[in-house]
Amino acid sequence: MHNKESFIELGARQRAKAILDSGSFREILGPFDGVESPWLEPQGIVPQSDDGMVIAKGTIQGKDAVVVAIEGSFQGGSMGEVSGAKMATAIDLAAEDCLAGKPTIVVLCLETGGVRLQEANLGLASIADIHAAIVRAREVTPVIGVIAGTVGCFGGMSIAAALCSYLVVTKEARLGLNGPQVIEQEAGIREYNSKDKPFIWQMTGGEVRSRCGFVDKLVKDDVPEIKKAVEECAEKGVPEHFRTGCIDYFLETLSSYDTAEQAQPGTAEKLYEGGFKHD
Amino acid sequence: MEKVTLTLQAPKTLDKSVQLQNGVVSSGDLEVVFESSDGDTLTVIIKSSVDNSAERWKALFSRIQQFNSVPAGRMLINDFGASPGVVRLRVEQVLDEAEHA
To answer: What is the least distance, in Å, from the CA of A6 to any CA of chain B?
Structure first.
């Protein structure tokens, strides 16, 4: 019998509420502010009142925080002009608050396939803004990424995930630059079958990403456990080293791999054995 | 995609102003955003991925009106092909929350 409280089953707004201290949730640019994507309707696509992006201020263990949560079930959690600007600005304003002497923890609930193709360059530009905002904010406050699943985190937003100070994932989550269907289309179904779920999760799932040292915490799909993991990351503060700062290690490791050999489940774990650790 | 606007007679005004949101625009679902106001009408603005569905929306809301007394205000519906059953459930959830807000 299930007696756990699933995080994956929650929508973006409920996820933000779950992470913040009870009763502290206050939404910014919510459904009643009427800021929707201006690009979807002309293309015959139904928009959403918050453009699939929930920005919430509140507290985590009494400390000021902003939670930015992507709604994975709206257009695959894709990043458009409005949704992307909401996330980038929220992170930027948190960094400014920190610099002005008002420490603010940043939590990103990433559930996205990357850029919203209908908004093309504007979406890509907003992803670049998000990257820049994370790089700036992580120097002054912990930026904590949470990938719970089941959409996962792909495309340009997988880079955003890698830029975070800390990354929390479940074993249901996936993290990768290209999504499985894209790889299948490019490399062929014999090399990468996107319908072969066990194979896909062995290549990009939360467990293998954890064993490779690409994430900091592997947790169960359970609200209290995810909340606790976020709190622990927040307590650690700004880390001494960032994963994306270890360019030499990653380049050396990657170039030591013989690409003539077909990568299999398990290949990455061996390659990155004893990889990046914060401590 | 189609846009449908309905104006319904709203026999009651809520005691206090409420803002409610329910549902997510995902495959086969929809979101309902409601804001109460003074006056005696409820304006329903529907954006639906299903074309030629104005008559269905009209019929659905007249059905909803038979069982509920709707409050005055504005209701936005962003619909991604939800079945009439799901639409009615979401709308009635909002009406119920408005009642007990």
So the answer is: 18
> Tell me, which fold does domain B2-99 have in CATH?
Ribosomal Protein S5; domain 2 (3.30.230)
Exposure of B94 in the CB half-sphere (CA atoms within 13 A): 28
- On whether any CB of chain B is under 8 Å from the CB of A42, the answer is no
For the CA atoms of A154, A159, A161, A164, the dihedral, rounded to the nearest 10 degrees, stands at: 180
Q: Is residue A259 part of a domain?
A: yes
How much is the pTM? 0.93
Q: Over the stretch A93-134, which tens digit does the pLDDT of each residue have?
A: 999 999 999 999 999 999 999 999 999 999 999 999 999 999
Domain range annotation of chain B: 2-99
**Beta partners for A182?**
none
Q: Looking at this protein, which amino acid is placed at residue A8?
A: I
Containing A51, the helix (H) or strand (E) segment is: none
A/B interface, count of CB pairs below 8 Å: 46
Asked if residue A41 lies in contact with residue A47, where contact means CB atoms within 8 angstroms, the answer is: yes
Instruction: Say yes or no for a CB contact (<8 Å) between B24 and A74.
Output: yes
pLDDT above 80: residue A275: no
Residue A126 domain flag: yes
ipTM above 0.90, yes or no: no
pLDDT of residue B12: 79
CATH number at residue A147: 3.90.226.10
